[in-house]
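Handout, page 2. Input:
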Amino acid sequence: MRTSLFAAAILLLCSLCFGQPQQANSSTKQPSPETAPLPPPVVTKHSIRVGGTQLNYTVTTGYLPILNAEGKREARMFFMAYTRDDAPAGRPLMFSFNGGPGSASVWLHLGALGPRRVKMQPNGFMPAPPYELVDNEATWLTDTDIVFIDPVGTGFSRAEDPKEQKFFSLRGDLASVGEFIRLYLSRYGRWMSPLYLVGESYGTTRASGLSGYLIEKGIAFNGIILVSTVMNFQTLRFADGNDLPLVMILPSYASTAWYHKKLPPDLQNKPLGDVLKEAESFAIARYAPGLLKAGSLSASERTALVNEISRFTGLSSKFIDQNNMRIELGEFMKELLRDEKRSIGRLDSRFTGIDKEPAGEGTDFDPSMTAIRPPYTATFNDYVRRELGFESDLEYYILGGGVGRWDWNENNGYADTSGNLRSALQKNPFMKVFIAAGYYDMATPYFATVYTLANMNLEPSLRSNISMKYYEAGHMMYIDEGQLRALKNDAVQFVRSTSR
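Output:
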């Protein structure tokens, strides 16, 4: 009895001090992920010197919520916004993202646009670790504020329901990134700023799509910058019955063979621009018609065509003939330098790699991707935490890892957002488009972009709204220091001419 009384006294004391103990079936609930408040953004101040002038700027790092029609949060999108401190009212604002789909915004961020960049070798090749960030005197922040967006499934951006797939589609991606832009303009009071988009690779697909999507919601852009462009995926996808990519990539094969000194002397001794003019003419006037009637060519006609393809690609006539005059990208990457036991890069064909089996049919990896991924991954993870003060244990998905199976919402088998861009230009004839293309980019060949623009069915009076510039580098032309400066000059001129 004395033990029971003592126990009861202790229980009463505990209840007075700490409240009633919780039962296993208590109705008390923890906030669900979609209702728990997002952490506040982290704001930091910085400065660099650009051309002898001090540039003071603020970085805002954090999340914006993506809500459904019922107001329930379905995703959180991570962003890093750079604003110049001494800028006048009405300063331009640019939204930036990369591609994949499944790539974070890190490449344009720490490669070209931001005030800090990854230090590579001067030609863009991989440096020795440990890697470092340096001040970027070619930053675009001199002329525009910049918001780097990580779409859902990239960077630190996540869907609240890990099983949710709606964001991993062409339409779902446009809707979520479009909603982010609308919300940012509202929360940060930038509705009256001159507005720009810049995208790279699949980011150009997204930017073109957004231009048409957002104008229907009242958001019009002064300008769009497309870096290494793909709008029509039929120009890229090698497949039986689709010879278009074979024609579109042939000039890029020629530029690559020229760089590696594999062309015949009469072409090799010419400037690259002259070589490409001949290659483009051959691709349209001889190669495309030849593929259309390949089965009906006479023996002499076929031999002549095979020899011409060999002349512009640096590949043997025997190899071309055995492949029925259709050389897909993977075959070219492996074959061009086979005698040197080297393969070449897809993103940047100046890069070379060493495969396990030099005599094998395919490459083991893309040497141009493996050269940049470690430096960008290491430096970003250090930068966002140490310099920007954003702490997270989440993995920052640089490229892949967070995006599920992608729904391309294809039209006749191939995604195409060139119609969105055409629609935006028709509805907003003041919008201008600047396209940057690399001669050594074989992921999004420059001639495929030329073809897409020529076949957009754009009204003649609007064609001058689009300009295009070429760079002697690859998909990420800005990793080359000379091309980085050239791209900055072209981009700044474009912004200045369209923001007034």
